Amino acid sequence: MISDIKYERCEALIAHPNRQLTEFMRQFLRDKGFGSIVLATGSRDAVKLLKRNKTRLLIVDYDLPDFGGADFGGADFIKFIRICDGPLSEAAVCIVISKPNRQKVLAARDAGANEVFALPLTLNVAEQKITRALEDPAPFIRVPTYTGPCRRRVSLEAWGGDDRRGAAPNTEPQKVLGISDILAASNRR
Question: What is the DSSP string of the chain?
């Protein structure tokens, strides 16, 4: 389902310490028509800029530094976004991982990232993933253990085998064995 998003009304936040990547993403979003693009180089700056609560898209570095000494980047930053009140908690979050590995990608997914960018990043990949995150997002899930987009990406084909769960249930009463039945059976051996 593709939605009609008015990009000129959208605000994007790019939180990444690499100036070259930040400018690449800023120009891309500007060309896409985003009305407002704000930049942050660390997690503290990003949190201050998010107080306006109008951000529709976040592009965040997995190793986002916090110049105050605390480790508050990557998956922790996404978890923070997902527990915020209001529409910010459902903003599209794309995370940039410079040296991706299975552990980092799964941590980002489990924290609630919509998309994961692996470096080096091409314009085509950025466009595909940002468009999917904004225009065709996964259903949003809110349960006690997870808040974020549905993590299931693959639609499985219908099962071609026997439908054992759809079969009529066995309605014959089952005999409940007591301790005496079990002892009697073991004595017969």
Answer: ------GGG-EEEEE-S-HHHHHHHHHHHHHHT-SEEEEESSHHHHHHHHTT--EEEEEEETT---TTS----HHHHHHHHHHSSGGGGGSEEEEEESS--HHHHHHHHHHT-SEEEESS--HHHHHHHHHHHHHSPPPEEEETTEEEE-----PPPPP-S--TTTSPPP-SPPPPP-HHHHHHHHHT-
Side-chain-side CA neighbours of residue 45 (13 Å): 15
- Name the pTM for this structure: 0.75
Q: Are strands 146-149 and 11-15 parallel, antiparallel or unpaired?
A: unpaired
Q: Per-residue pLDDT tens for 170-180?
A: 666 656 556 66
d(Cα 121, Cα 104) in Å, to the nearest integer?
A: 17
Answer for the pair 94, 59: CB distance below 8 angstroms, yes or no.
yes
Domains defined along the chain, listed by start: 7-149 (3.40.50.2300)
